[in-house]
UniProtKB/TrEMBL annotation:
Residues 24-320 form the tRNA synthetases class I catalytic domain. Coiled coil: none annotated. It comes from Anisodus tanguticus. This is cysteine--tRNA ligase. Belongs to the class-I aminoacyl-tRNA synthetase family.
Length: 565
């Protein structure tokens, strides 16, 4: 889908090092090498992880869309103080525990439609590379040993702080360890930790032990991408000390070490408060996707620019869920309607001129919008809220046309226009990682199943309520029938009357609940959550009024299309 504009849009990314957006120019034409810091695998991953890896998945997808040959490396930290502590608490082997949570992470990434990186190295499989890099750093006079520990000397690297902008005298020792009085400088950090009783260890020239946190990424990125590559990414919290220390030790090991672009994603807040276990507002990906479809979580995350803070709330995830349901309802209805006109769609290439000017203009704008916005430092919100929804509205208008009897030429124009719009929308969704490999009907059913779980209802409960309402309407008990519908809407279930049939679908509840603590999520949600007014949407989120329009438009498509004359 190349842009139709004469002027090619240049891809720009925000570089943390220079504090500005820069035109992306890979070191080697046509090829991109990128490294993203992965998880420390000692527990289920949280929505902060989802935010990071969805953001860099969009980068990975868009680079591939632009035609680059991309080598994407994302590591696993599978030996660490946190892993050892958790394993000891559970009486489990640290490597077995870490391996288990690596697999759980991969399942979460698969659910979120994140493409698998080219390489996913684990620290424990790269001890030789780590020890070799430490040896080079020591040979170059930038590290020292004390009692089997090896520390990097920040005083040996005058440029320390160039990424974060910190002055050396202002830096604290680190995020994961306390100050060690043996260090020459409190900011010096561990490259190798001497073995302790009961902890996993490996032999080294400095005695048995294990790597420090920072050295692993330098060693593995150099092994897979060389010392000089294009993009290094991670959460904003990794800027200091982790990435700052990576730069120092990588340059100490190899003077030619150079990374062109450092990219960092923003934080996740919960109802305008920082996500924290101590505040009881800490959510794992698995806890969210138990009640909301993973595509809804991905859509919600893409509704915010990757560098801006994300405010997670029940109201916003429900609106995101509503939006994705509308998208898939439109895709499903379009594919169902077009299947009745298969002979007409086979002639698309021969009669392209008969596609309506409105559809052609919409397709052109959608392509331009995708490339313009993603090329502007991956600005996904505008794509979701403007051009994509305009295309979906137009698709629904053609679906309505196909329900009415009309002349063959008008009918064919509607079919061809809908066919091309469907193809383009699916291509856009694929670039955004929102196109599931499941059938549209399967995805819609998955959304409905989660809506029932949130409502603490079964399908039979809803069908019984529909029967009661039908009987009440037949008996002209309209107050009762209205109350049945209102009660279901309060639980996130909307009833729609299509001809003589009543169908149901998920909807946004008029009042949202406070998120519950993760430990409570195994209990019935409705009994635990407290009601609150719906939170105001952030500027980049779809408006609630648009969602109402989408619901009505999508459900109109459930009537069968008129077959060709």
């Amino acid at each position: 889908m190349a842009t139709t504009e004469e002027e090619v849009v240049e891809f720009q990314v925000y570089n943390t090092t220079t504090r500005q957006k820069e035109v992306f120019k890979p070191k080697e034409p046509g090829k991109v090498k990128m490294y993203v810091c992965g998880v420390t695998s000692y527990d289920f991953s949280h929505i902060g992880h989802a935010r990071a890896y969805v953001a860099f998945d969009i980068l990975y997808r868009y680079l591939k869309y632009l035609g680059y040959d991309v080598v994407y490396v994302r590591n696993f930290t599978d030996v660490d103080d946190k892993i050892i502590k958790r394993a000891n608490e559970l009486g489990e082997d640290p490597r077995a525990l870490s391996g288990r949570y690596c697999q759980e992470f991969l399942k979460d990434m698969d659910d979120l439609q994140c493409l698998q990186p080219t390489h996913q190295p684990r620290v424990t499989d790269h001890m030789e590379q780590i020890k070799e890099m430490i040896a080079k750093i020591m040979t170059n006079g930038c590290a020292y040993t004390i009692d089997g520990d090896v520390f990097f000397s920040v005083d040996s690297f005058p440029e320390y702080g160039r990424l974060s902008g910190r002055k050396l005298e202002d830096n604290r020792a680190g995020e994961r360890v306390g100050v060690d009085s043996r260090k020459r400088n409190p900011a010096d950090f561990a490259l190798w930790k001497a073995a302790k009783p009961g902890e996993p260890s490996w032999e080294s020239p400095w005695g048995p032990g294990r790597p420090g946190w920072h050295i692993e990424c330098s060693a593995m990125s150099a092994y897979y991408l060389t010392h000089s590559f294009d993009i290094h990414g991670g959460g904003m919290d990794l800027t200091f000390p982790h990435h700052e220390n990576e730069i120092a030790q990588s340059c100490a090991a190899c003077r030619e070490s150079n990374i062109s672009y450092w990219m960092h994603n923003g934080f996740v807040n919960i109802d305008d408060e920082k996500m924290s276990k101590s505040l009881g507002n800490f959510f794992t990906i698995r806890e969210v996707t138990r009640l909301y479809h993973p595509l809804a979580l991905r859509y919600f995350l893409l509704g915010n620019h990757y560098r801006s803070p994300v405010n997670y709330s029940i109201s916003q995830i429900e609106i995101a869920s509503e939006s994705v349901f509308y998208i898939y309802q439109t895709l499903h209805d379009s594919e169902e309607a077009l299947s009745a006109f298969q002979q007409g769609t086979e002639t698309t290439t021969n009669v392209r001129g008969r596609i309506s000017p409105q559809a052609l203009d919409c397709i052109r704008k959608l392509r331009i919008e995708l490339e313009t916005k993603l090329s502007d430092d991956l600005h996904t919100p505008t794509i979701l809220n403007a051009a994509l929804h305009e295309a979906l509205r137009l698709m629904n208008s053609y679906l309505n046309m196909l329900k009415r009897r009309q002349q063959r030429q008008q009918q064919l124009t509607a079919v061809l226009s809908l066919t091309e719009l469907l193809k383009e929308v699916k291509a856009i969704l694929d670039v955004l990682g929102l196109l599931s490999s499941s059938t549209r009907a399967e995805v819609l059913q998955q959304f409905k199943e989660r809506a029932l779980k949130r409502a603490e209802l079964t399908e039979e409960d809803v069908l019984h309520a529909i029967e009661e309402r039908t009987l009440a309407r037949k008996n002209r008990e309209f107050a009762k029938s209205d109350q049945i519908r209102t009660d279901l809407v309060a639980k996130g279930i909307a009833l729609m009357d299509i001809g003589t049939e009543t169908v149901w679908r998920p909807c946004v509840r008029p009042e949202q609940e406070q998120p519950v603590a993760p430990a409570q999520l195994d209990q019935p949600a409705a009994a635990l959550q407290q009601e609150q007014p719906a939170a105001a949407l952030q500027q980049d989120q779809p408006a609630a009024a648009l969602q109402q329009e989408q619901r009505a438009a999508a459900l109109q498509q459930e009537q069968p299309a008129v077959p060709p004359q």
